[in-house]
């Protein structure tokens, strides 16, 4: 039997991992900053929201409203955390990548 | 540094468009970024930009997010309920929509026709200042000098033109030779009056010389495909002409559908002739000048130029004397707006003639049919309302206001109308060819979807939806919820009103059927009238003057053919117009008469089967006959002569002619008019009129193989007139042609009365169904108590019979009133007999009985136990 495949886009994969790293502290701006800090990639805030919504729709993350802060003009944060399904997805993606990576002849990777 | 705040518009934008659910997080993130950017001007810009980037479908508010717009949500619900109701009651909805669709389709087609008729000649720029100049009040033909003189005398006149047309011309291009219709001959100012669009060439110099020729685009493409027509030579009626310009084809809705324009001839102007009226004059007047002002001026122009020539001719001392003697006549020229020619003055038209009567009748019929369809809808909806009473009860119990219920049912009726309109458009598209035949116009499918039509459709959608839906909605919304929920049947609307509406439908149907039968009866009557001459098997050959001197040879050769009995020639033929000439009676103070004048050869008597009641007709080889005339009984009566033979008639200032015979009156024009006085003069030798007397050659044929005879005649023609096509027709065809408009009129009535009856019967069918539903228990009880099937059917039929009779009485009185005035337009007409008016009632009655009993039969034969077992 084929194992369930997890269809994830590149940015989706990235955002999902960032949400996992941030561990219940993930929200729009934070995710955006983290992507820039860790990978050096600039992403627009609206794109981050879109990806987060999509992940939530796919049940890989869940969200709840957090506390308000003054710098946010009194608006609350929407905090995201990874669901069990999300964790499986991360593992699956990681494993398949590794498997593929391991099959590459070492010569090609240049270590002789 | 100044601290900025996020742009207000962006916040408003977010709050207006974005779902509550997403709003807070988006705003929050944007604020956070804004603060982090230092609340600078740049941050502000970024805030705005990001707001716009968040504009995604997912975040936008849906209908459910507008709490203040409950009505919108309700409309959604009403539509849902309406669609479900329609699906549940398929046959009811089907009948309703079909009936409305037929009504709307007729309406749609007729509207298109009416708009088209009113759009004639509206496309010429500045056309509102262009007028047709009439001789007197309505005369079509005007003197040659009028256009030029108006231009010279009055600064108020911007441009004038003189036109002769439309004719058929003989074209020769290379070695091809054929007739081309739509030929117009005009002076060089025509393009100042009618601003046409030039494809090539120049309006200033297009027809300055007699060889100049202006073609329409379609002709230019047909004759010279793929190359420029400019400079090409065409032989028109024997003259070499050169194409100088090409103009766009005039659209369909014009009174002047020319195909090409040439330079008009100026032959009479040297004589300063103001009494020969041969041309059509158009004038464009300066802005701000009314036609009435011009008409007043033209009276003095008439007096100045036409007056002296008129009195020279009439023998009066002064123009005033003449006016005094005939005060009823109009002396002057009058202006008539170009755009009103088609409907108000169709006799001015060179192409299709409009008919105001047709437009009015068509519009009325369209309105009638739409009314019948609406009445159907109202009847069915109110009758059906009993079924919906529970729904209304629940809605009211749950807090519906009355106006909610009303709008619900209105929306339902607008939905039905909308579906009906879609069906109506499909019906119109398919019936367009037939409609074209009916109206004698050439509409295309694209004409159906013109802007005006689409707007009118939408207007009709709302009017019909509100009109037909309004009353039922009012009635239904009146239900008391308590009674409705207890399952009590509520009387929906007044029975009297519903019956009244059905009677009204019958009245319209019966009116239309009666009109149809009378119109056809009249047409048949005219067609079968004894004309006093024999038109059968009479071949008419046009362009007889092309034969010239060869006529006699041609005649002898034709008479040598086995199928041809006798051949004659004439200046006029029956049913093709006539011209009145002035004569005076020299022995009776030069009393003037104006009979129709024609020239005939001796054989005309045999060809037409003329009946000579007194004296004789012309004879061959009697040279003296050129000074004789044969007159008809009607002229004898006008002159009041006891013994007409030997009496003399004189052309003013011309020859004197002796009466040698009297013909029995025969119809040489339409039966709409009485037989007018007629003079026949002996044609062959008269040189005064050139070859005029030989315009037509008539041959009496006796054959069963008409095609073969025609071929033989054509062969002979080609031998004598090579290069000029043979053009012939049969006289009885042209007789029938005169009644084409009546036939069309009759067809219109047949079509629409048929439609009206169908719609009415559909309504009747639905209504019977509901009556039966309401009375099924009553019928069962009656049956148990011993009623027979026929007696039950009679009971059902009785109500409807009464309605047919009431409607019939109304419809027939209307028909009688209208038809008697219609028949007054015909000198020879049928009597409006009682059976012509009773037959439609009987017809409708039989149809009603058939529908009602067919529908009731099932209920009548059903087992009463089934109806009574539930209570």
Outline the structure in words.
The complex is a heterodimer of chains A (112) and B (871). With 112 residues, chain A is of the alpha+beta class. Chain A has a single domain (10-109), classed as Orthogonal Bundle (Arc Repressor Mutant, subunit A), CATH 1.10.10.10. Helix content of chain A is 55%, strand content 13%. In chain A, strands 1-2 form a two-stranded antiparallel sheet. In chain A, α1 packs across α3, α1 (10-22) packs across α4 and α2 crosses α3 (45-57). The radius of gyration of chain A is 17 Å and the shape is elongated. Chain B has five domains: 8-61, no CATH class; 66-117 and 354-493, no CATH class; 129-348, no CATH class; 495-530 and 736-871, no CATH class; 543-726, no CATH class. Chain B contains 26 helices and 23 strands. In chain B, strands 3-4-9-6-8-7 form a six-stranded mixed β-barrel. In chain B, β19 and β20 form a beta hairpin. In chain B, α12 runs parallel beside α23. The interface between A and B is medium-sized, with 18 and 19 residues.
Indicate the topology:
The complex is a heterodimer of chains A (112) and B (871).
Chain A: H1 10-22, H2 28-39, H3 45-57, E1 61-68, E2 76-82, H4 84-103, H5 106-109
Antiparallel strand pairs in A: 1-2
Helix pairs in contact in A: 1-3, 1-4, 2-3
Chain B: H1 8-17, H2 20-36, H3 41-53, H4 70-88, H5 90-118, E1 130-135, E2 142-143, H6 146-153, E3 157-173, E4 176-186, H7 190-193, E5 198-200, E6 212-216, H8 217-223, E7 233-236, E8 239-247, E9 260-263, E10 277-285, H9 291-314, H10 319-325, E11 333-337, H11 341-344, H12 356-397, H13 402-439, H14 445-448, H15 451-476, H16 481-486, H17 495-528, E12 538-541, H18 551-560, E13 564-570, E14 583-585, E15 591-593, E16 596-600, H19 604-608, E17 612-615, E18 628-632, H20 633-639, E19 648-650, E20 656-663, E21 678-682, E22 696-701, H21 706-720, E23 728-730, H22 731-737, H23 740-784, H24 789-823, H25 834-861, H26 864-868
Parallel strand pairs in B: 4-9, 6-8, 16-21, 18-20
Antiparallel strand pairs in B: 1-10, 1-11, 2-10, 3-4, 3-7, 3-10, 5-8, 6-9, 7-8, 12-22, 12-23, 13-22, 14-15, 17-20, 18-21, 19-20
Helix pairs in contact in B: 1-3, 2-3, 4-13, 5-12, 5-13, 5-15, 5-23, 12-15, 12-17, 12-23, 13-15, 17-23, 17-24, 17-25, 23-25, 24-25
InterPro entries (chain A): Tscrpt_reg_PadR_N, WH-like_DNA-bd_sf, WH_DNA-bd_sf
Pfam families (chain A): PadR
Protein name (chain A): Transcriptional regulator PadR-like family protein
């Amino acid at each position: 039997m084929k194992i369930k495949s997890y269809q994830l886009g590149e940015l989706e994969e990235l955002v999902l991992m960032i949400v996992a790293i941030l561990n219940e502290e993930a929200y729009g701006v934070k995710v955006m900053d983290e992507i820039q800090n860790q990978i050096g990639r600039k992403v627009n805030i609206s794109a981050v929201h879109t990806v987060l919504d999509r992940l939530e729709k796919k049940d890989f993350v869940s969200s709840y409203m957090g506390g308000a802060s003054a710098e946010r003009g009194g608006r609350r944060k929407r905090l995201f955390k990874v669901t069990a399904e999300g964790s499986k997805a991360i593992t699956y993606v990681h494993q398949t990548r590794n498997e593929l990576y391991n099959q590459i002849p070492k010569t090609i990777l240049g270590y002789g | 540094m100044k601290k900025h705040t996020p742009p207000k518009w962006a916040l408003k934008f977010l709050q207006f468009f974005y779902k509550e659910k997403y709003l807070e997080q988006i705003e929050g993130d944007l604020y956070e970024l804004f603060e982090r950017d230092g609340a600078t001007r740049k941050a502000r810009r970024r805030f705005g930009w990001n707001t716009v980037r968040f504009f995604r479908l997912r975040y936008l508010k849906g209908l459910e997010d507008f709490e203040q717009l409950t009505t919108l949500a309700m409309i959604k619900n009403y539509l849902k309920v309406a669609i479900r109701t329609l699906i549940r009651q398929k046959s009811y909805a089907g009948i309703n929509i079909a009936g409305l669709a037929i009504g709307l389709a007729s309406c749609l087609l007729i509207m298109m026709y009416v708009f088209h008729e009113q759009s004639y000649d509206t496309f010429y720029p500045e056309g509102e200042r262009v007028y047709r100049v009439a001789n007197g009040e309505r005369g079509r033909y005007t003197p040659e000098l009028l256009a030029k003189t108006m231009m010279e005398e009055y600064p108020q006149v911007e441009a004038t033109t003189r036109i002769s047309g439309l004719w058929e011309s003989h074209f020769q291009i290379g070695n091809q030779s054929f007739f081309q219709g739509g030929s117009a001959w005009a002076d060089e100012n025509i393009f100042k009056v009618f601003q046409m669009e030039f494809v090539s060439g120049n309006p200033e110099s297009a027809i300055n010389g007699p060889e100049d020729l202006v073609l329409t685009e379609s002709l230019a493409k047909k004759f010279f495909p793929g190359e420029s027509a400019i400079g090409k030579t065409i032989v028109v009626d024997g003259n070499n002409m050169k194409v100088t310009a090409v103009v766009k084809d005039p659209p369909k809705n014009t009174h002047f559908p020319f195909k090409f324009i040439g330079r008009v001839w100026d032959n009479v102007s040297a004589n300063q002739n103001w009494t020969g009226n041969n041309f059509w004059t158009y004038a464009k007047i300066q802005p701000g000048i009314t036609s009435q002002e011009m008409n007043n001026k033209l009276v003095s122009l008439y007096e100045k130029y036409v007056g002296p020539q008129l009195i020279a001719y009439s023998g009066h001392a002064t123009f005033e004397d003449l006016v005094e003697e005939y005060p009823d006549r109009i002396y002057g020229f009058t202006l008539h707006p170009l755009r009103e020619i088609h409907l108000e003055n169709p006799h001015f038209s060179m192409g299709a003639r409009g008919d105001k009567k047709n437009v009015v009748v068509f519009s009325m019929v369209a309105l009638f049919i739409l009314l019948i369809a609406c009445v159907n809808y109202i009847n069915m909806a109110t009758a059906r309302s009993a079924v919906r009473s529970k729904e209304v009860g629940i809605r009211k119990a749950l807090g519906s206001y009355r106006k909610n219920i009303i709008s619900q049912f209105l929306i339902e009726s607008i939905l039905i109308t909308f579906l009906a309109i879609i069906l109506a458009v499909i019906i119109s598209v398919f019936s367009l060819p037939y409609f074209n035949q009916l109206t004698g116009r050439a509409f295309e499918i694209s004409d159906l979807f013109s802007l005006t039509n689409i707007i009118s459709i939408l207007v009709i959608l709302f009017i019909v939806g509100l009109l037909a839906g309004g009353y039922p909605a009012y009635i239904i919304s009146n239900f008391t919820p308590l009674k409705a929920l207890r399952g009590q049947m509520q009387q929906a609307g007044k029975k009297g009103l519903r019956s009244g509406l059905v009677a009204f439908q019958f009245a319209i149907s019966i009116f239309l059927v009666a009109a149809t039968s009378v119109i056809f009866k009249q047409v048949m009557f005219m067609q079968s009238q004894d004309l006093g001459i024999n038109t059968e098997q009479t071949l008419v050959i046009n362009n007889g003057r092309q034969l010239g001197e060869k006529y006699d040879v041609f005649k002898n050769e034709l008479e040598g053919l086995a199928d041809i009995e006798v051949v004659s020639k004439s200046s006029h033929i029956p049913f093709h117009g006539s011209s009145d000439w002035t004569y005076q009676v020299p022995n009776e103070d030069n009393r003037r008469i104006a009979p129709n004048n024609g020239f005939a050869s001796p054989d005309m008597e045999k060809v037409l089967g003329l009946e000579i009641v007194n004296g004789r007709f012309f004879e061959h080889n009697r040279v003296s006959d050129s000074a004789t005339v044969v007159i008809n009984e009607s002229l004898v009566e006008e002159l009041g002569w006891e013994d007409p033979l030997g009496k003399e008639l004189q052309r003013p200032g011309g020859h004197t002619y002796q009466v040698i015979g009297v013909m029995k009156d025969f119809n040489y024009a339409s039966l709409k008019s009485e037989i007018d006085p007629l003079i026949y003069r002996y044609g062959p030798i008269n040189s005064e009129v050139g070859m005029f007397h030989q315009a037509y050659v008539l041959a009496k044929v006796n054959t069963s193989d008409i095609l073969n005879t025609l071929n033989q005649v054509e062969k002979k023609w080609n031998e004598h007139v090579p290069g000029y096509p043979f053009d012939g027709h049969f006289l009885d065809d042209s007789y029938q042609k005169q009644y084409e408009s009546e036939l069309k009129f009759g067809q219109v009535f047949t079509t629409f009365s048929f439609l009206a009856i169908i719609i009415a019967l559909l309504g009747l069918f639905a209504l019977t169904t509901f009556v039966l539903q309401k009375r099924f228990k009553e019928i069962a009880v009656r049956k148990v108590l011993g009623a027979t099937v026929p007696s039950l059917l009679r009971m059902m039929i009785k109500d409807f019979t009464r309605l047919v009779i009431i409607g019939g009485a109304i419809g027939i009185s209307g028909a009688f009133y209208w038809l008697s005035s219609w028949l007054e337009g015909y000198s020879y007409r049928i009597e409006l007999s009682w059976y012509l008016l009773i037959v439609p009632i009987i017809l409708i009655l039989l149809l009603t009985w058939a529908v009602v009993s067919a529908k009731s039969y099932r209920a009548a034969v059903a087992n009463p136990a089934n109806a009574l077992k539930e209570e």
